[in-house]
Design brief:
Layout lengths: L8 E3 L6 E3 L9 E2 L2 E2 L1 E3 L1
Antiparallel strand pairs: 1-2, 1-5, 3-4
């Protein structure tokens, strides 16, 4: 899953870290060796 827009929130299903997108640069967010999940 790639980052698509500013303001999206992602969470790590392993450790619980959360990230809010402030700049879209493409690619995917990874934490603890797994892709982070988009929080809806």
């Amino acid at each position: 899953m790639g980052v698509k827009k500013i303001g999206e929130k992602y969470k790590c299903s392993v450790c619980g870290n959360e990230v809010v997108v402030t700049k879209v640069g493409g690619g995917t967010l990874v934490c603890c060796g797994k892709d982070m999940e988009l929080v809806k």
